[in-house]
Amino acid sequence: MMLTQLIFGIAGGLLFAMGLRSALIRESLLARILAVNVSGAGIFLAFVAIAYRGLEETPDPVPHALVLTGIVVAVSATALALALRRRLEEADDE
Amino acid sequence: MTELLGSLFILASLAFFAAGSIGLLRLPDVHARLHALTKADNLGLGLLVAGACLIGGHLLLALKLLLVWLLVMFASAIAANLIARHAMKDGEES
Amino acid sequence: MNNLLTLPVMIPLGFSLLALLWPRRASSIGILGLLATLLASAWLAWRVAGSGPMLLALGGWEPGLGIALHADALSSTLLLMSSVVALAAGTYSTGYFRERSDRARFWPLWLLLMTALHALFLSGDLFNLYVTLELIGLSAVALAALGGKRKAVEAALRYLILGLLGSLLFLAGVALIYAGYGTLDLMQLRNMLAPEPVAWIALTLMISGLLLKSALFPLHFWLPPAHANAPAPVSAVLSALVVKAALYLLLRFWLDIFDDVVTTFAAWLLGSLGAMAVLWGSWKALRAVRLKLLAAYSTVAQLGYLFLFFPLLAALPVGAARDTALGALILMALTHGFAKSALFLATGVIQQKAGHDRIEELGGAARALPVTVFTLALAGVALIGLPPSGTFQAKWQLFSAAIATGQWLWIPVIATGSLLAAAYVFRILGYAFASAEGVKYRIADGREELPALILAILATVLLGFGSIWVWEFVTPGALAVGEVP
Amino acid sequence: MEITLWHLLDSLLAILLLGLAWSALSGTDLKRGVVLFMAFGLLLSLIWARLRAPDLALAEAAIGAGLSGALLLLALRDREKSENKAGQPMSLLRLATVLLMLLLAASFALAYVTAVTSNTGGRLAGLAFGNLEQSGVSNPVTAVLLNFRAYDTLLELAVLLAATLGILALGSERRPFRRPGVLLGALVTWISPLLVIVAGYLLWTGAHAPGGAFQAGALLAAAIVMLRLGGMTSEQLPHQLLQGWLLAGGIAAFMLAGYLATFHDLAFLQYPAGWAGLLILLIESAAMLSIALSLGLAYLGGSPSGWDERSSRGKRS
Lengths: 94, 94, 485, 317
Description:
The complex is a heterotetramer of chains A (94), B (94), C (485) and D (317).
Chain B: H1 2-26, H2 30-56, H3 59-90
Chain C: H1 7-21, H2 26-51, E1 54-57, E2 68-71, H3 73-96, H4 100-122, H5 126-144, H6 150-181, H7 186-192, H8 197-213, H9 223-229, H10 232-257, H11 264-287, H12 291-315, H13 320-354, H14 365-368, H15 370-384, H16 390-404, H17 410-433, H18 446-465, H19 467-474
Antiparallel strand pairs in C: 1-2
Chain D: H1 5-26, H2 30-50, H3 54-75, H4 91-118, H5 125-130, H6 140-148, H7 150-169, H8 182-205, H9 213-229, H10 240-263, H11 276-300, H12 309-312
């Protein structure tokens, strides 16, 4: 166990919760999309903190790969959400 | 010896970055802020790159770092120009 | 080598690419792909029934480092159901989407959704499950927004954001599990998990995410708008399959992987929420103005029944009685899947022919669209739980389990829910058989009416009279992946 | 446990990150929020570097901060009706949500700390490094992504495809930008080819050093973004039919490589001995192009003009 792991892991937990809260209470769709991204980043931070094994040892590559996958999934979701939001403004009522 | 010199360069670069950031926060209008930011940052980055080259020691590495510096200069010069022109057009807002 | 296991996932994925590349032939490619998927799923179910659960270590790496796929009775049954529903709704869609360009948009996404569902049913790895959840979410949202009506887009966006939050809660649990146990493989975790804080908190996070996705009361609010505004074939699959995917994972975690971690209190909590879902969903369905909204609220209610099983399963000792209850749960989920997709497809027919789906203006529908109204009635039989439908047998078992365990509380809930269901089904039929001229047009196109009818017959007749097969297939260790040699 | 300067740096980074996130999320000015979010992404990328995850640092800077940022900035042009009444909930409810948030964070942190302190083993690291020799590449992250957990990556490409198809299905692209002035035009013409070269380099180097298909694909997408800012129209993209093939290519390459193995009596996605390196490079090349085009089309914001004609050409009527 290392202090670095704890610092970033706990920060990740805070980010996760913070993002989740904003995503639920904000009215603006763009703000909610931002919040989902921040929340995801918090979990990624926890993953990478788990992988960290000090300055001498090479970190665990598995969480790194998982987070890389997660980043691509997050940007896909963001892109789709933004496209839907744009269409919402253009679509006429009925 | 080269390591010490490199570290000195990097320390010096920090001073420039700090000056640039303070300028960004404290100066009154867009043009003055841009001036502070681009000048200080480009010099700061130059010193940082020089320091890193000295510490790194490889010729190939130095070349890559130099390329990074050139690219950033190129991009930031044009970005600064765009921001300045935009600010001129909009009149002074902030 | 069990490479067969990859086929139900890879066939739809491959055909999705083909449909993207040859948009002019998208429909034929899609139907062909779904037929092939159905064959692969049937073959897989046959193998599982014959020689027990199957496992495949992808890439040849030992599970843990690599990802394993596995199939047991529960997953192969759901796989088969999803293949059938997808094929029926897909066939229907060829008549529903008139424009060639609409079909070209629909098919690749439709097949991606099937890929995702089947990948979820077969996956044996926690992080991989997260990826499949996201794939389900994004393809379902893209499908729900097809057509571009403002209401549909708005509901789809809300659905997307809530789905993402659900996935994030799930992922947070995955991170904790990896931190604590150092593996993501379900089978390894199954033997490692112990009732301790890490497992509890991780499970709570994952289950909360899944509950959000399976729309358990009070987390159901996103479902009715999303399901009621999507194109009809998409609504059918959203209600019949997509929410079931989250439910499947809940079952898998609750009864299999986290068996030692879950508590009776938590089971009671889920049961109570399920009871409220039954009452609230049925009530809202009864009050619905539009047929599609009725169907969507009915999904909220029907999902509630499935959660009633959790406290019962928790109270029953491991053995024959518990297996029977589990079989009833699966039978109910299957029947609902077929019946609800039939209901949505039939609603789609009415909506297109009559130009609306307002229940009170359905007069004349029975004369103009007899097959479709018959389908509505059959699906209604299954939703209420009248014999001979599968739901009847499942509810019967639910009753006996409630009596056996002394949990009398659930009995009035089930009875009220069934009465309300009868009320909303007969409300539809009452208006449909009225002689007013609300619905005028006849159609002759079998592509539109037959798929729904077949699904309704499957739900009412086949799963009713044939429930014994489901039972025999499913009950002796439905969740038996752990026993793979 | 010894507290060193590193830990002070870590705390500083973590606090900065939380502060940035908080100000990005709590303000009502969306433009400010988006810019702060991009800064958040860059800081995160710095933290990845600190935690010795250079692959992630590259990906975060290119995708998390870069492309997401570009998409979000573009989205600021679309006005929402709800933005005008960006009202906050009542104070009591607000307090309740803050408390709930703290509870959530605290329980996550509790489980996390327990887990990390009780399990100090290497988790899967030992297995991953032990099998690195057989994986065909020497960068362990690439080995996990393209070999050990290749199935995840295959499905991840499907996620990207689903999002792209969803965007394409929603309607046509945004209007292209006006032709830029001399200076920006010069930047675009100089930077874009350079980005292509760097992408190729990252793809190649991913086998043994930080980099790989995703980072390279993001850079190529950045080239599309630059060109778009320089006034590119969608006619300048590859031909529509080719676009379809490019989008499908990543997944197709994966599937072909996956089933190639099954003819040798191996498991799906098990690369035949000696072929792993080459197959991984081929898959990555195709994946890079798919990723680049997907993200590029996402920036265009919809189907390029004439996309639907693919399906109606040759229609008899």
